Amino acid sequence: MNPTSSIMLGPDLMGELRAFINGATRNSRKGPLDIGLARVALSLLKTLPASREAVLEYFCFLFDEVVRHYIENFEIASQTGSKDHEVSLSAQEEAAIAEVHNVLCDFVSNSPEAWAPIISKWSLQLLGEISSRYASRAAHSGVLSESLQLWMSCRATRCLIDITTQCLSCLMNFDTESCINALLDTCVAHSPYFDWVVAHVGSCFPKTVMTRVLSCGLKDFCSNQQGPKAPKLNSVVQILGYLAGSHSTDMRRALLQLFQVLTSWSLEKNSISDPITTHQQYSTVPFLLQLASMSPTLLRSLSMDVLHTLTPKILSQLAEQSADWLAYYGGREAFQDLLVHLVLNCPSGGPTILALLLDCASPAIPKQMPSTPEEIVVQSNGQEFLELLLQELSLLLHRSDENILFLSSLRQELKTVFPLLLSPLRLRVQSALRLIGFMGLQSPSVFPNAIAYILTNAKTEDHLSVVAKLLENQASASGNFRKSNRTGLPLEHSNILQLGLEQALHKKDDGLSVRDLWKNLTTLLRWERSGKLNNHSQPVLKAIYASIGTACSALGSSVKPDVAHAVAETLVLALVQEPGEKRTSVTPPIIQDALRLAHSTVSYFFMCVEIDDITGFEGCQVACKLLSRLSLRSSAARSLALRTLLELALFHGPTHLFGANNLLNEEVFTAEESDIRLMDENLKQGLSWVLAQRHSSVFHAGVIGTGLRTLNKTNTTPTSLIQRNTQLFLDAVRSCCVSNAILDPSAMEPGMPTLSLDTVISVSLLLVELISPDVMYNGLPWPDEDMCKATVERDCYIRRKLEQGPILWELLWFIGLQRPALCYCSVILRAVTATLIAQWGSCSHHRDPSLLPTTVRLLSLLSLGQLLPSPLSSLRDVVPHIKPPEVVQVLRDCVWNYMRDHVPAPDLFSRDSHGNMWRDSTQEPPGPQYTETMRLIMLANIDSLGELFAQLFNS
Fold this sequence. Notes:
By secondary structure, the chain is mostly helical. Helices cover about 65% and strands about 0% of the residues. This is Integrator complex subunit 5. Pfam families: INTS5_C, INTS5_N.
């Protein structure tokens, strides 16, 4: 029979006491734990208060035995490499621990004010002793999370923690400070092995524990006059760091609350505060900074909320405490080094820190300029600290490739840094430039992003000058850091301006921003061409050439004319070379881009023609310059531009602006889903029988199913505007025909042609192609008059086109000036002559007023092109004074027969000393078979043609 059984059955209190003393004092470590003795101890604790200390001491032995057993098994498992550290307690150990846990918890629950302080102190002390005693045997890395896992796996320590938590939950309601002090005192006595207890308790009461730990830590920080060497500081950091990991929101609030107490106290400037409170308030900032320097987790918490409450005004109010702050760190330099270290290691809040420093060093608002001595001190210190921070960044970047958290934070919020580049304050601009240069070393994509922002938002030349500085920074980075980077963007030979321009153009901004972008590019290009940009690689020109595709889209868009004007100004500056200017070494746009640009320039020209103001006129001039430069660089672009110009002006563009009369009310007809038979639709026109050669078989004029054909509209464009537009169009055509000789004005002799004859000839051939519907009989010779019967339909079509589009006459006049290009328009001249002969022949003795201007214009054109020699070249002056039959005779005998016998061939022309083509008609004057009819008709009308007759036939 177990002897303890007879002891437990003792009826009197004295017997239980004797049994407890006998059992607790013997060397029981050699045998198993006695559950009966534990129950006797619990009974004495209930009935005999004097035995409390002895009983609690026995419980210490009891829990220590269980922990020792756990550690021994843990060591065995560690040596064998087993991951199973669970220890199975004996039945008596399990029962003893459970009964002690239940009884002590009942004591605390039933009488918290009496038992909670006693049991709390006992459990904390026991946990501290156990943690310290077995720390050397518990092989772990010392990390708080691993310590928690180790001790919470032990049943004894887990019960002690539960008892402690229940006691503290009762104490927190009426004696919080003494409770936390006891916790920290034990922590200091057994640090760092006891930190896991505080961390676990703090997880149960995060708000209270955080606030009280901060308060107690602050008191210890300032009371010992040791600052960073305060006894409890490491424990405070360990505890708060652990709690901040799982209760970050509560930690941020606790830190913010502590700082707000300081700021409110500073605002009140309470002169009756006791010295202890004043000293604690003066120590708050150093205390918080020290916590942040010892724990990245606490630094992150501080940078989230506390940092956002700081303003230059608050800093000026705290400036009077700065002398007390320095005492904790051994001087001003050490304190500044600490601050720089903290800023560089801030994982978040970088933009807020930068904004605070700049607001202190260089206020953006005049009202924020320093006025008091404290504010002046803050400004001076802000400037000094900002410079120290930038210098330290430079040293770190040149020393290693490690990531700097402060720069990483700024890179995530670049939109807060870029506006500083456009600040009117020099310090802000320079600081932003240096920071972007630093960030560009780690992430080169920052440079194009910055340039894109400036190009889009710059309003003055001072803003644009920042681009030049960014280019210099990037060049410096390329020279000092020739290495790869995580973005894959090469630092060497990278045109960041090109990348920045691409980013800016692909942003979906409004038209105003895009217009400003191109205007800023124009300014930069002007600086580059004048040498103001100290960069011989011409990055601006390269960027523009690389963005030709986007420029073409913007140039040819009529939705945003302001943007198109800005793009045109940029392109004309990039492509047009001034006389005597040094040729650029940049590779010009490829043929595909040149063709796109030619087409877009023509579209831009017609858009400007429709703008009836000075802006449209200037836009047309810019378009002419672009067409001239493109034509000189690419024959394919020249051909495309000419064809597009003629097609749009004659058929598909705003033809009414050039005096066109064929303005039909065009309608779009869509077929129904069901098929429509033409015969069925025609039969719907009437109910009568369809008889041959009767009115019922004749189709109605119009479109079947839609009624009569709509009559032509009348062109209401003012004559002055038509003349202006026509002249602008001819200027555009002339720009496409410029000669390469204009590139070297010094080599040009006076009187030399500035237009390329070959190009003008191509214009004449293109004109024939566009308005002549037949490919046969388009040669230079004029056939016999009888052959006109075979070409009457084509001749009428050509004549109708000339009547509908007066600009065709202007084009022919332009061609006639460049001899012998008019020869290639022989088919057009022949068609007009044939139709005039037929029309004049039908007039009899009644003159048709509409025929005379056309006839005079034709004869003037033949004379201008030197296709009719003298005296036939003067027929234009004769026709207005003679009768219609006489006009027919003149056109047939003098004009048609001469042109038939003398083919208008370019071989008849020779080049003079100046390079101009000329036909010498004096060597082959027309015979009497061509002039006799003219002479006789003039004699018949000698009363009105006498003076002209004397000049032409004086012999």
